[in-house]
Amino acid sequence: RIQVMMSCHDDVAHKGFYATHALIKDRYWWPDMKYDIAWFVRTCHLCQIRQTRQIYIPPTVALPAPLFSKMYMDMMIMPVSGQYCYIVQGRCSLSHYPEFRCLRKETA
Questions:
Q1: What is the DSSP letter of 76?
Q2: What mean pLDDT is reported for the chain?
């Protein structure tokens, strides 16, 4: 097993677990093969020397827009009531507070 893992890991230029596992699983099988390959790649001296540490960058949290600074608008045609036949609706993106107004014309 060690000889198989050494030759396959060296053939893929020490690319890591996934490349080594993909190469070996097409040709061989043994119980707990995945764990053996993971151990072998983790303990490979050349891989440890060349490994660069990954820098952890914490995720940034987007700040929500203040109340009523971002609005969603929609216009609906309704049955005529009095002189009004349109309703315009606005909704705050943060609080979801709705606001409605009746309109006589669509361009009002």
A1: E
A2: 84
If you search the block for the tokens 């107004």, which residue do you land on?
A: 101
Residue 5 near residue 24, CB atoms below 8 Å:
yes
| C-beta separation of 41 from 12 below 8 A | no
- Rounded-to-integer distance, Cα 23 and Cα 25, Å: 6
First to last CA, the chain: 79
CB 94 within 8 Å of CB 66: yes
| Ranges of the chain with pLDDT below 70 | 51-58, 108
* Cross-strand partners of 23: none
Q: Give the DSSP H or E segment for 41.
A: helix 33-42
